């Protein structure tokens, strides 16, 4: 049988996969064999665990943590503060008006205490704040209810609350388009200012939703260098390498075109060669899924289109990209 992915990179970084209650069943064998870390794809997000003020729903999150225990895997927590998949009640007062800043931050503290506290023996790292940087334009922060109500303070507060809830957990800022020079510099600016304020932050998550064309290796390298210069550890948190450009809306392919998977293998090899160069600062590489039978990309940005982004195919068999990585690792 083929070598295990997690063993290939054992001396370099953890190898993770995003999972959900369906994939821990349909992909159990593959996950257990090749990965030593998981992230909940949706099940630990605010709306999933805390749909109403007085109601926490941990069933699915607990199932994923139990799966990790069963297989001796690490768990990353995802995510505490986000503009998306966050319950509406959080931002409302009892008359359906907008809540005050003080109440919003107290709700965040209480949520964080409960969720991070619950998993303090299982989750070693949290994406505390997710995607608050604006993709385009001059402004640093993305418009959101968080920002409207609390101003930029909510970011530092979120890290303080998470640190209080579990002083041992590694706390990450996580974002996408992280290798785009403009956004990279904004992320750097935000995190640098958090560090200067003494905020407990330990790492930057590079989501790494990439494709065969973008970003360039030079931009990836420059992003790693810049973030690492802050003295923090880095993790790739949501890696996938689609065969389509983001702008490409074609829907005609029912299987990859000739050459696509070979090209993907070259890109994966080049990426992992680069990541290995930075093994001192990169502590984990998590894919946003495990095999091509299930990926969020098959519904985004085009509905019902296969993207074939992973190292394993729809039947969980190794793809050319996997073979290249095995060779790179000398296995
Ligand atoms: O749970 C409902 C279900 O009840 C309903 O019937 C169904 C109909 O559409 O929707 C289900 O919710 C979906 C949810 O995933 C759970 O499957 C949402 O529509 C769908 O939008 C949601 O997508 C998730 C997305 O985050 C939301 O922004 C993806 O699964 C998840 O992979 C994706 O993950 C994000 C990371 O958290 C942050 N970084 C980007 C990454 C990819 O977008």
UniProtKB/TrEMBL annotation:
Origin: domain of life: Bacteria
Pathway: Glycan degradation; xylan degradation
Plastid as UniProt keyword: no
Catalytic activity, EC: 3.2.1.8
Reactions listed under catalytic activity: Endohydrolysis of (1->4)-beta-D-xylosidic linkages in xylans
Keywords of the record: Carbohydrate metabolism, Glycosidase, Hydrolase, Polysaccharide degradation, Xylan degradation
Single GO BP term: xylan catabolic process
The GH10 domain, residue ranges: 1-328
UniProt keyword tRNA-binding, yes or no: no
Molecular function via GO: endo-1,4-beta-xylanase activity
PANTHER family: ENDO-1,4-BETA-XYLANASE A, GLYCOSYL HYDROLASE
Sequence similarity: Belongs to the glycosyl hydrolase 10 (cellulase F) family.
Protein name per UniProt: Beta-xylanase
